[in-house]
Amino acid sequence: MTLPIFIFWSVLVLLTYTDIVSRKIPLIIIIPSIMAGLWFNRDILSVSLMLVLGLILYRLKFWYGGDVKLMMFIASFLSYQSFTILFMALGCIYLYRFIAKEQKNLPATPFILSGTILYFLFDVVIPNTLIFITKGTRCG
Length: 140
Known about the structure:
With 140 residues, the protein is an all-alpha fold. Helix content is 81%, strand content 0%. It is built from six helices and no strands.
């Protein structure tokens, strides 16, 4: 299970960097990454639903095409958890726009990465740490 996790985080950080620097998500990286995620996870439904939601956001001119492909990549690896990450990323974008008062030409990839980190922090790391801490203690 460590290979999919390594591939996921490596590609996510690489794509975030390339989006910040060049404002593009390279197809040569994203398409094989989505295929690898589907090979590991085999959940085409989540990827299809993320494509539909991404196209709606694209049509509303809230996201660009690379952001849609990136969320499809996350859905290919994390299946239904990717929808939580989507809403966390959208929340981070709205918070940034509210604080910075910047509305245009904002890459969403750093916010998608932030939403993914927040998801793993609050859904995976903290609950597992609390279980580990409380497992050895005696109540009463």
